[in-house]
Amino acid sequence: MRKFSILWASLILVMLGGCSAKHYSISEPKMIVLKTKKIKFADMGYLRHEGDAVEVEIFTAGVAVEKISIDAEVCTGSGCMSEEAFAREYLYEGYPADTMRNILLGRDIFNGQGKSEICNGTLYQYIRNEEMDFVYRRKPSEIYFRDYLNGIMIKIADVKENNATE
Fold first, then answer.
1. Which residue range is the domain that position 89 belongs to?
2. CA pair distance 157, 154, nearest whole angstrom
3. 36-92, pLDDT tens digit by residue?
4. Do residues 88 and 70 lie in contact, with contact meaning Cβ atoms separated by under 8 Å?
5. Is 38 part of a structural domain of the chain?
């Protein structure tokens, strides 16, 4: 009887552990630049998302070196935390909790404050006050966020395939 209990407990643990990996319907190679208080990186990576869940996997010389996953929590190589804690620790304490998620997904930040549309559908947000001075630009091939006061830069650009015969 004891072997039967251990077998069921093991089966349940394997099933629960196997369900923890998130599967994303969209996975795109990108050139990624992240410069925050705790992350400094510029190289190739993947941006994956499904609904509100988003993940950035960062590579250096073809080896995965960091992964930032945002779903119910934000998980990095250092562990998981709330979005609010992530914004405070990795970005700036005055940012809304969902700032990183919205930047990665190319959505409005700060409830669309300072938003305008410039040529060819490029969306632009600009906020300048005593706590932050940022520009946030989104176009089909690139997302660019730069806060000059707080030393933060996030750039995600499409990877252009080069044709060897050209």
1. 22-106+145-158
2. 10
3. 989 899 999 999 999 999 999 998 888 888 899 999 999 998 899 999 999 999 999
4. no
5. yes
